[in-house]
Amino acid sequence: MNNLKKYNEIFMKVFSVEEKALEELEYQGIDEWDSVGHMELIAELEDGFDIMMDTDDIIDFSSYKKGIELLKKYEVEV
Amino acid sequence: MGIFNDIEKYQNRPAIISGGKEISYETLTEHTEKIAKAVGGRCLVFLVCSNIYPALAGYVSFLQNDIVPLMINHTMKKEMFERLVETYQPRYIWQPVGFSNGKSIYEFEGYELVRRSCTEYLLDDELALLLTTSGSTGSPKYVRQSYKNILSNSNSIIDYLDINSNDRAITTLPMSYTYGLSIINTHLLQGASIILTEEPIMQKAFWELCRKYKANNFGGVPYTYEMLKKLHFSKIDLPSLRYITQAGGKLGKELHSEFAEICRNKGIKLIVMYGQTEATARMSWLPWEKTKEKSGSIGIAIPGGKFSLIDVNGEVITASHVTGELIYQGDNVTLGYAMSCNDLALPDEHKGVLETGDMAYIDNDGYYYIAGRKKRFLKVYGNRLNLDEMDTMLQAAGYEAVTSGEDNHVKIYAVNGTEEEIIGFVIEKTGLSKNAFQVIKIQQIPRSESGKILYTELK
Predict the structure, then answer these.
(1) I need a labelling partner for A18 at 20 to 30 A (CA). Which of B200, B250, B262, B366 fits?
(2) HEC profile for B70-119?
(3) Domain that holds residue B95
């Protein structure tokens, strides 16, 4: 599975959203992406890409797009 | 009566930091006087809460002026809110402008006082505040707290946490929730400061506020601590932090011990506490020096409070490591419940004694440990069986299963494993007759969004 597909599938699974909604997805933009959802998302991304994210990146992870940028630090090109 | 009547004495010290502004005790008092004047006198007011200044100013104003607020979280669904209004018949609603329809008679920083016509009912003289125990589900069951309850509990907390005017809390919990409110109460009474924010700890903005305004304490429920762990709290640099508190459920021995270690290394105090809305807020605290050694314990009764343990026959348990129902005595035991406005004239029904509904035991040094909820204990042929322990045992053995049932009839809801296997396993572990157990196969264990098992949905 390529990284973009994996990244998208994690979002779709955690927040039960469709692929076409991903591009605009932001923290607290939908009910599912609250603090609890955020924790789940980070846990799934860490498992999925086998990385450990830093505090600053976890709290800076404010949107679908921002996440793609942040993951580069962990040598994950989405 | 009233509370916070003399906070003006703290003058120009900052009371509230909110939206980039510092509001002094003097300014806060000016605002609370205006709000109280608009209300006019003692009556019931619905207070729609979030951690923003006009909501807090309303709260302080009401408590100062014998006006009784019923606290509602702003996330409550409209239908539920309307139903509560019908049930409790408030004379006013203090709400974000436009939250519900009605005649606005006063506005302040995005909040409005809405007057409504209401039926006649009486308010008991001691009644200060109404708080729910069920979050924002809209249940009509509210806890009746008195002025004495709030003052006595606040003073106990101020005593054991040593809260003084230099302290500065940042909000992590809703003010409609007793634990969040107790942090606000204690800080205001001591002339300390509160950084009011709705930012969750998962957001950068929260930590920026923490650093900018030098927060020196905050509280958290177990889930907050799970999030802090995920955020690598050990590595977050917060030089101003003096202590953090935990309540609102069992932290778990492992997480407790882990945070004890982290906090020791960071040079901050971790204070684990236990309480219920029915006891205003707090009943026990674990002194920080003991937090590592006594991980998993709820500590000792707060100053002015007293615990006892009662066995099945109502006898007091004095031996250590014997589980019984936890009873609390103190001035913070609330007046009782209300289900509608007709209950607001009821007198004190508890008389200072609270059956907590929790099962607990003490260790040899007198520290208390919660074993589980009373309703999760069954009597089976004269033995007491802890269903939570059963669940843990079954899950440790590889069964995805949970238990429920009545006295002498334990139901095991299992996703995997055969009936024979499971019965064999539980009779070996408990030493009880197989007649006490019934296995029911299910597709999956029903859970809430936050992962809690929904026992009521097991059939």
Answers:
(1) B200
(2) EEEECCCCHHHHHHHHHHHCCCEEEEECCCCCCEEEEEECCEEEEECCCC
(3) 7-370
- The tokens of B401 are what? 């299963």
Please tell me the predicted confidence (pLDDT) of residue B384. 78
Cα torsion A17, A21, A23, A27 to 10°: value is -60
Q: Which of B51-55, B104-108, B303-307, B453-457 has the lowest mean pLDDT?
A: B453-457
Report the residue of chain A nearest B205, measured CA to CA.
A59
Q: How confident is the model at residue B455 (pLDDT cuts 50, 70, 90)?
A: confident
CB contact under 8 A, A34 and B200: yes
If phi > 0 it is left, if psi is from -120 to 50 it is alpha, else beta; for residue B67 that is beta
DSSP secondary structure code for residue B285 in this structure: E
Check residue B455 and give left, alpha or beta (phi > 0: left; psi -120 to 50: alpha): alpha
Max CA separation in chain A (angstroms)? 30
Q: What is the pLDDT of residues B337-393, one digit of tens each?
A: 999 999 999 999 999 999 999 999 999 999 999 998 888 888 888 777 889 889 989
Q: Which residue of B has its CA nearest to A39?
A: B227
Characterize the bridge pairing of strands B168-170 and B193-195. parallel
In a domain, B376, yes or no: no
Question: Cα distance from A23 to chain B (closest Cα, Å)?
Answer: 20
- For the cut 80, the answer to whether the pLDDT of residue B450 exceeds it is no
Residues of chain B with pLDDT > 90: what percent?
Answer: 83
Give the pLDDT score at B397.
93
Q: Answer whether A55 touches B (CB < 8 Å).
A: yes
State mean pLDDT over B288-306. 96
Position B276, amino acid: Q
Please name the helix (run of DSSP H) or strand (run of DSSP E) that holds residue B239, with its range, or none: none
Whether the CB-CB separation of B269 and B243 falls below 8 Å is answered with yes
- Do residue A39 and residue B227 have CB atoms under 8 angstroms apart? yes
Q: Is residue B238 part of a domain?
A: yes
Q: Which residue's structure tokens are 């264990």?
A: B445
With CA atoms as reference, the chain B residue closest to A35 would be B202
> Model pTM?
0.88
Q: Which residues sit opposite A63 in a β-bridge? A: A26
Q: Is B34 a domain residue?
A: yes
- By C-alpha distance, the chain A residue nearest B202 is A59
Is residue B375 in some structural domain?
no
Distance from CA of B161 to the nearest CA of A (A): 28
Q: Do B329 and B421 belong together in one domain? A: no
Residue B404 identity (one-letter amino acid): S
State the Cα–Cα distance between residues B437 and B424, nearest whole angstrom. 10
Q: How many CB atoms sit inside 10 A of residue B122's CB? A: 11
pLDDT tens digit sequence for B337-351: 999 999 999 999 999
Chain B positions with Cβ closer than 8 Å to A:
200-204, 206-207, 223, 226-227, 230-232, 235-236, 449-450
- What span, in angstroms and rounded, lies between the C-alpha atoms of B346 and B52? 32
Q: Closest partner residue to B202 among A38, A43, A56, by Cβ?
A: A38
Is domain A3-74 annotated with CATH 1.10.1200.10? yes
